[in-house]
Amino acid sequence: MTVAPQVPRHHVPAARHRAGRTTRHPGTAASTKHLRLEIQAVRAVAIAAVVLYHLFPGVLPGGYVGVDVFFVISGFLITAHIAKPLATGRFSFRVFYARRAWRLLPASLATLLVTVALTAVFVPRTLWKDFTEQIIASALYVENWALAANSVDYSALASDSSIVQHFWSLSTEEQFYALWPLVLWFCAYLRYRRRRRSGVSLAPAIAIALGAVFVLSLAYSIWFTGVSSAAYFTTTTRAWEFAAGGLLWLGLQRVRIPDALAAAMSWAGLAVIAATVLTFDASTPFPGWTALLPITGAALVIAGAMPEARWGPAFLYRLRPVQWLGDVSYSLYLWHWPLLIVMPFVIGLASGVATPLWAKGLVLAIALVLAHFSRRLVELPVIAFSTERMRAPRPRHRGVLVLAVAGMLVVALPAAGMYGSAAREEAAASTTVDVTIAADGTLTVPACRGAAAMQDGADCPQVDPDDITPSPVQAASDDFADQAGAGCQIAGSDTTVKGCEVGDPDGTVRLAVVGDSHASNYVPALQLIAKAHHWSLTTYLHSGCPLTRASIAAACNEWKADTLEKLQQEQYDVVFVAAMSRTPWPSGMVRHADDLTPAVRDKAAAGYTSAWEQLQQAGSAVVALRDNPDPSIGGVPDVPSCVEQSGDGADCDFSEAAGLLDDPVAQAARTTPGVRLIDSTAMFCADGTCPAVIGGVVVYRQLQHVTQTYSRSMAPFLEPEVAAAVETATTG
């Protein structure tokens, strides 16, 4: 059944041709062959930019704009596929969606199925949950929204990047394909309902729809790009790029471009694309207004078509390697990223170690071979089969939907099984370190367990991988804020001043611990100490928001001000403070150890001092806790995955010189009268090395955050300094 408004035929302007070689009308059927060569050439440029950017980002720092070029091509072609049959009253939703399904799903679902297998065989279990969640989202074509929800940085090429992160663009295209026919059909319906006469053009209605989408989406993209990294992935910030392609197709139905001008436009378009590929980088706000440059470049090349001027680029477009690369661009895009992400695991690289050039070259070679055979053995046979089905007297489009759903389930079900397996292990109770509280309040931990292994005279053997606790899979959730203190650490735009009592609620000595997630690192140890001494301990925690007078974000600034006021009102005996050393506000994130210069450190320290002095004036003693070493800046960004691969060995250890930053909190404590500093570095590092596993315990759960289990093991060794600080504050 054809679902389309019953309209007169021939209402998209017909092409007007003129003899000679000086003019061209790229949007017409007469130029389809030339247009195909040109489109394939643009695809070749786009896929080369994307793949080389992923493999060698330093060579093509702006290669990600190739995706935007693909979006323009899609908007151009799909608008034509919809508008032409709409103009003749023969548009069918079922035919359109069936053709899209036959064209795109077989290759993508085959890639996803192989990706599930690669994940099961080579990827550490610590990443199964995240990877399979993304695979399921990709199979359902909502990967872009999944990444947006997680605020993923597209430019991050770390070992734990999603193995199907590249499916975000395919998801965006599928969503466009799903909605765009409805938009254009509705425009046609309104147009012909109001003007029931032959000869009424459909072009104005389509132009209005395209123009509205272009303007509104571009405006939203410019605004949202400045607000959130999620803007990179959302369909709403990308819709204008598809609309640009549609507007280009519509305009070329009426415009005749002389060959000389077409050649100049083609070269100019290629130059613009090249300029963006070479000059844009991860710091370029994108998509926003900057995306107008690659979009304009792509539009110029498409509009130039196959110019017959001898000095034009048509001879390049006709080159067999260029056309072949354009032919396999879809398959190459599908295959190259999973291979790039899985390669470090295949060759046994430790987490954080850069993939060597020879391995990247191997990825490229394998991807090209797979793309060739995927095109030859999957794409082309399916296209031929679907074309024959479509031309049958009674084509059955419902079967395509059944096959599509079945294919998605074939991918989603095994991925869901792996996700469930990892989730169950993560949620299972781990073997923790027993910290004993004696009747006299003495804290003890078994010899060679956790921080006990770092004490003088300890001679502790390596631990069998099966005896490491928490298991690498469990480490990610071994967090005070997620378990014992669930709900106590707020985040994001939340400004609630939430105090959680975690010590002895009847204690007469009243303590507080305040700061960001790195203050939370110390809470499990302080909690045991407080309970042993029958002290009250209240937490005030906000992710990414330490107690400083320096300006951070609006919500954080409000929380800090309200929390500081609350602390002054409560007049705690001692307030423990800590903060992530990589965020020396107001200077922002430190990405390399050398960035934390003395000037940056001292400026950040001044902000802490200013806040602490207000607490001292209210009668509270301030005790600063030096931040723990940072494996992510020391070269091991994912300790649990590294431990899953390497066990209790040296492969996951890092240098103290690289990972231990000159903490501004420690500097503020050294320069602020009356503030005491507790430095726990000796519980993390020895002889210049900071192990990932200490005393059979995984030290870090995520980036530089400490596992709750290891923090608890530190309690007996922190207790003397904490007790001394409290005694001084309460008796002095």
Describe this structure in words.
- It is a single chain.
- The chain has 2 domains: 32-423, no CATH class; 474-580 and 591-636 and 655-685 and 704-731, Rossmann fold.
- 54% of the residues lie in helices and 7% in strands.
Strand segment count: 17
Determine the strand fraction and express it as a percent band. Answer: 5-15%
Our Rg estimate from Cα atoms comes to: 31 Å
Count of all domains: 2
Q: Outline, from the CA principal axes?
A: elongated
Q: How far is the N terminus from the C terminus?
A: 89 Å
Give the class from helix and strand content and strand pairing: alpha/beta
Number of helices: 25
The biggest sheet amounts to: 7 strands, mixed
**Nearest-integer average pLDDT:** 88
pLDDT under 50 segments (min length 5)?
1-35, 156-160
Estimate the helix proportion, in percent.
Answer: 40-55%
